[in-house]
What we know:
By secondary structure, the chain is mainly alpha-helical. It is 67% helix and 6% strand. It has helices at 16-20, 23-45, 64-90, 97-130, 141-157; strands at residues 47-50, 53-58. A two-stranded antiparallel sheet has the order 1-2. Helix 2 runs antiparallel to helix 3. The protein is elongated and about 65 Å long. Belongs to the synaptogyrin family. Keywords: Membrane, Transmembrane, Transmembrane helix.
Amino acid sequence: GGGAYGAAKAGGAFDLVRFVQQPQVLARIVSAIFALIVFACLVGDGYTSLPEDSHLFCVFNRNGDACRYGIGIGILAFLACIFFFMVDVYFPQISNTTDRKYLVLADLGFSGLWTFLWFIGFCFLTNQWSWTRIEDVHIVADSARAAITFSFFSIFSW
């Protein structure tokens, strides 16, 4: 049955299978995985050094802002996914329709903002990758491309 803001009436029993089958929960899980991939690729292989110099630099055109931006939005997106996942778990237990409305609006607003930030991140990383010199890229090219790819996918998952 329909309830206030897409949830059943408050106080019902929690059904894990039904909960996981909800489209917003599936999208949130996918978004969290994409954010984790972007974050992990940039932290693990986003910084490299040359054999003759031990100084680390960002693989994206030696622009540290590109790596920091990708890492920052990846971490914050992952944490937001966890937060909104917990909101989704407790949402049916909230009986106040005003609270439900504010949670739904916060989720929509944050998702819109993060869609925009992922778009900016994709454009920024792609632009910096296009200016990267071949001699600066060795093994880390696949991780850089994965970060760009999953930044693009994140635009649609949010």
